[in-house]
Each structure stands twice: as C-alpha cells, then as structure tokens.
Amino acid sequence: MDFELPYPFFFLLLLLVLLPFSNTAQTYNNISLGSSLTALDDYSSSWPSPSGEFAFGFRQPGVDGFLLAIWFNKIQERTIVWSANAGSLVPQGSQVELTNDGQFMLKDKTGKQIYFAGSWGITGVAYAAMLDTGNFVLANKSSKYLWESFEEPTNTLLPTQTLKRNSKLYASYTASNYTPGRFRFALKSDGGLLLYTTNYPLDSANCEYWSTHTEGSGFQVIFSQSGSIYLTGTNGSILYMISDNTYSTQDFYHRAMLEYNGVFRHYVYPKKTGLGSVGTRRQGWSSSSFIPPNLCASIAETTGSGACGFNSLCREGTEGPVCECPDGYGFIDENDVLKGCKQKFVSQSCDEAFPETHLFDLQELENGDWPFSDYQHFQPVSEDWCKQSCLSDCSCAVVIFKNGDCWKKGIPLINGRIDPTVGNKALVKIRNNSTNSIPNLARLGLLGSSAFLNLLLLIITCLLFFHIIHHRKAKLSMLYLGGQGNNLKSFTYMEMKGATNGFKEELGRGAFATVFKGVLASEDGKPVAVKRLDTMVRENDLEFKAEVTAIGRTNHKNLVQLLGFCNEGQHRILVYEFMSNGSLASFLFGESRPSWYQRREIALGTARGILYLHEECSIQILHCDIKPQNILLDDSFNARIADFGVAKLLKIEQTRTTTRFRGTRGYVAPEWFKSLPVTVKADVYSFGILLLEIVCCRKNYIAKMEDEDQMILADWAYHCYEQNKLHQLFRNDDDEAKDDIEEMKAYLMIAFWCIQEDASPRPTMRNVTQMLEGTVELSNPPNPSSLYVQCKGL
C-alpha cells in the first residue's frame, strides 16, 4: 500500500495540470493580436469556429455593403445570428482588426470607426476566439472573457446563451435589412419579460403586446443546452416556459429569433436528413414554437400603425401573420409591407356644393376590423342608415356595423385585422367604376332625350373647360417653382431614379421623407442628396412648395443649397448638394470628441445661417426644426442648415404666427405647447438647446444616467454654472479646450439666455451672433424656469 498510493496521486495531479490546456485546444482557435479581416466579397473573409459550425466575418446581404456578422457556417442558408453594424453597412475594403493593444474595432476603407467591441475601459485582451456555441469572445491570458457577443445580442438567441435584466433583442427592419426595426423582446430591470412595439424610427417603447407578468421576480432568460427556453427567478426556479423543446441539440441546430414582423420564434434545423418529423419534411429551418399565438389579435395600439402598418389588414396564416391591403388599396412599398397601404383612388371631396356620394361604394369585408380608428359611434341604427352615413361623410373610410351599432373610422386606419372571432361586418369605402353621374340621371327618367343630350353636351363642355384650366395651372405651377430658385433645374422622375440607382443608398429618414445619395450624370458625376417626400403625407404639396420656395430664394454659405426638384405626378423630390461629412449629430455624439475650435466654428456658422433666414433673405423664414440632425457638415466641416420641409414662411410685415405643432420634442420652445403666438424666437430657443449640446458635447436628454441630476442637460449645465463647477461639464475635453474655459462659459451663458421660458427676454439671432463673436457684452442670465418635461416623452 505504501508504494501504490503515490502513483495514482501523481497520475491525478498530472491529469489536473494538463486538463485546462486540453479543454482550451478543443473549445476554440485563438485569433492573435494584430489579426484582421478585409471585406472583399461574401464569405471570403471569416474566422470559423473549431468545428466549423459557426463563422465570424464579413457578409454581403445585398449590393449596398457588408455586414460584420456571425452565422451558421455548415448549412446552406448560412443564417446570420449576430451583427455588429446592422444600421450601417460598410463598403468593400473595410476592415475589422484586433489591434496589438487589444482593441477590437471595425473601420471603413477611409479609416472611419463604425463599431467598437465593449468600451475603451477594456484592458488585457490577449486573443479573440469564435466558439462552437456561436459566441465570439475577447479573452485575457487566463482565458477569462472580457467581452462576448452573447452579452450584446441583436435579434437572435442561441443554446447556452442568456438574456439578463435590462437586455433586449430587436427585430430587424425587414427580412433582409438588419437595421433595428419596429419590435423588441426585452427583460426589464423589474424582471418583467415582454414583447412591445416601438415609436419607430425612435427606439422608445410604444405598446406591449405580450408579457409573462413576472415584474419583481424575473431574473434571466435561459436558452439551455438541451434546447429549451425559459425565464428563471433569482433562486433559479423556472417562472415561465417560453419553448419546451422536443428536438435534441445533438441532432438539430437551434436558434430563437425576434422576426421583423414581431413574432418571437424558436427554429430547429436537422443536422442530417431524415431526422424526425421536421427533417422528413425538408432540409431547412422549421418552427418549433412561437409567441404570441396570434400576433394580429395581440397588437392593439392607441397610437401607432398596428401589426401591419396604417390602412392594412393582418391575417393569421399557417406560417405566421400575413399583411394584406383592403380592396381599393395597395402597399406603399412591396418590399416592406409593414409600411402599410395607401388608397389607389382619389379621395372623396368635402365640397358640400358638389357632393360625390354617388361616386363611391361600400365593399363588404367579413370579420374585418380596425380597433381604435373610430371617430363616431351611433346606436341603435339600421345597417342602411349606417352605410348612408358613411357614404355622405367625406372623412369616413370604413364603417363597422354589428347588432345596431355603427362605428365610423377615418384615415389612417390602425390595428387592421381579419379575425373569425370578431363577428363584425366591415364596409370599406372605395370609388366605384362610374366617373360621372349621367347614368344615375338617365335612370331617374326625369329628362327627355333632347334635354338629356343638351345636359350631356353642357357637362362635356364644362369638363373640357376645367381640364384646360387645370393644365394651365399645372404649367404655371411648374414655372413658378422653377423660377423661384435662381437656376433651379427641373428633373424627371426617371432621371432621379437613374441618378440614385433605383433609390438604393439611403442617407437618412425623417417623418415625411427619405434622403438618398445620387450622382448627376449631367453634372460630370456630381454627388447629390435626393430627398423623396412620402406620398402618404396629405400635406406633401404644401411641404414641397414651401421647401422649394424657401430654399430656392436663399443664398448663404451656412445653408444647404437646393440644386433642383422633380414635380411629376405623385412624385415630389428635392435635389440638394451633397454634404460629405454627414450630420452634426453623428459628428458631435460619435466616439471621438470634436475639438473646441471645431465646435465653436460650427455654433457660429449655424447662428449666422439662422440669422440669414430670419432677417437677411427676401422672405422671413421660421425654420421650426433646428436640431443636430438638421445641421450638415461640408468638406471643411462648415455648418450648413438643412431641411426646410417644416418651415413656416412669414411675410415681411408678419412678426408672429399661430399654427399647429412643428419641430422635434426636446428642441421646441414652450410657446408651442401653450397655444401662444409663435415668432422667430422659437428658433432662438431651439438654437439655445443646440448650443448647449455643442458646448458640452452631449445630448440634451439622456434617459439612463447614474446621476439623475445629469439627465437633463440644461438643468445640470445651469447648476454647474451657478455653483462655479464648470469643470464637471468639460472633464472629457482635451487640455486645449480647458484652456478656453472662459469662452466656453460665455457660450453657456448665451445658451441660457436663448432658452428662457418666456420668449420676450430671449435675444434675437442678430444679438446671439454678436454675442458669439464677442462684440456684445454679456450679462448674467437668469435661471431658465422650464424644466424640459417635454424631453421625458422621447
């Protein structure tokens, strides 16, 4: 016994020493410091996991650029499960690098940083690895994970991955566009697990449509090694089973995904053909389970478009929700059905002198409904009375009749669905095939043939007359628009489509328009920004004419120049000079902090541009939407004010106007919310908020801050100014900026004067410009009394 005891002990000790090295070798292949991948073409640049089941690298989802992603590498679909730059595809030649100092970043071919893994505080990275679990990690010499893709999920969960409190998955915008879209799957800080819609294009929550109701107890969502998905409590107990798996992970690949349409679905894929019921149907992904059980019936927003977009219908199909348009309507975008539907006919006139009741019919739609679209309810009434009430009402688009109740609904219709449990009869108003009232008159038998022919001749004559007048008005309108712009060029729609390669490269998107990059062949390949107005917006003509008229008359170095327009049929397009350095928002709130000199010049340039709009151009212009997104930067980083689409034009003798709300919350003056007259001082207020952001190099409102006193920039900045603690505002600036702290303090004082709640003490933009230039002496500003409650709604 004395001899035999040490031998097993020695063997065990040797095994324990070698075991960590053995596990490391089997789990991952190290990616050493200094390694990099370059985007060349699809699949050409990647780092596979040891088994080859997953790969990390560049994917090309379309012709527009590359995605840095993780995907299933052994199946034909090569399904993407994670991406770093979903909202910003990079061009060919871009590179991802694990630098020699352990930083992991994605840069485009110009060297601009697009994505950075983790935070700048990560130190000690020794290598990276693509694991067989689908997790990409950065680790130190002790193989401790310092960062991992599992901790920053996009739209997919994989076995062994967990979703912790304050984490969420986002649905992609479409099946092929990985930009964050309209739905979220989130585990909140209080432990509640839910699905909700967003106030797209903002990320803020709008409407919850599925929940576990585990507030106070939910701890984490676990996708177990066995393939089940469940929510646990803090003690590890299962609170809610999301997907009780019946397919082994040994024989099937698994993934759980929040799809672009808002359904959270658990998929399985047989690793070999002929495995169970799934494998015998087809070699591909099949649904194992999904939530909610009926998306169409689950989403009922009081604001927002519903499951399938405005004016649409959601029908639950065998493979999930199906979006449709009612008769007389068509999809706004066939490639993005969640945008909703639009009328394919001319809406009913509201001119009481020429009622058009006879030109419209009601199309029956069994079990159709649009909850929360009602604007009138009558009871008890007959079905005929209900129909006639809608036909004679130009605001009525749909009427619902059930058991003596009559609900009238107007455009836009929301939460549209077809559901057998509804039991309603929906009647959709559409224009009939008749184009005039002559057949109805003939059927009345009130006119003889001679009188009828005379009336017919009179009607034809009137139609020809109105056609000529309309044609002349259209020509005059085109001449008017072209004449205002001093050499503005009129483009055809086909020229615009060709210049933008079919409107492919999107630069930005607003509430009423989308901007694309284009190239003018007639101008030797000159790059331009092409702004296409949304055809669904009823005020398109007004917005279009306002913008062409306003910008066409302007000429200033701090304004974006309008080059031309397209006014053809339903197409309303504006062509601007292209600003190569993007928006001030991207420049100001990006990874790198602009120098104080750059920020100061941008502030001064913006002020001079607004001054020109208010006092120096031929017609006074109130911009109404001054914010960082609407300040663009040219090749030399000069500020150029853009987006006059919501501008309120004032006549020379006009000093104030009363109008409906315009602009962006957080930047608009208090008078907009108080039904007070709005003057050019409203732009002064917006500039004041913008100036605070420029000086402090941060957004005016940040919801998640460790110190709640710093959430609202204006309050925090004034507190620091009042307490003489300005160093707290500028602690992230470089030493050069801190040398100019007195100038920065002066700019803060100017901002405080601009954002006074009462408009009267606010300076004019001429005074503001003089103060920024240092030609006017500054006095101490009073405390802005507005607490910026409006920001909290963002």
Oligomer class: single chain
Q: How would you name the CATH homologous superfamily of the largest domain?
A: Transferase(Phosphotransferase) domain 1
Major sheet description: 6 strands, mixed
CATH architecture of the largest domain: Orthogonal Bundle
**Average pLDDT taken over every residue:** 82
Inertia-based shape:
globular
Calculate Rg over CA atoms.
31 Å
**Tell me, what is the CATH class of the largest domain?**
Mainly Alpha
Low-pLDDT runs: 1-27, 275-281, 434-449, 470-485, 536-540, 645-661, 786-794
Topology, number of strands: 45
How far is it from the N-terminal to the C-terminal residue, by CA?
77 Å
Please report which band the strand proportion falls in: under 5%, 5-15%, 15-25%, 25-35%, 35-45% or over 45%.
25-35%
Put simply, the count of helices is 15
Structural class: alpha+beta
Catalytic activity: L-threonyl-[protein] + ATP = O-phospho-L-threonyl-[protein] + ADP + H(+); L-seryl-[protein] + ATP = O-phospho-L-seryl-[protein] + ADP + H(+)
Domain Protein kinase: 501-776
Keywords: ATP-binding, Disulfide bond, EGF-like domain, Glycoprotein, Kinase, Lectin, Membrane, Nucleotide-binding, Receptor, Serine/threonine-protein kinase, Signal, Transferase, Transmembrane, Transmembrane helix
Enzyme class: transferase
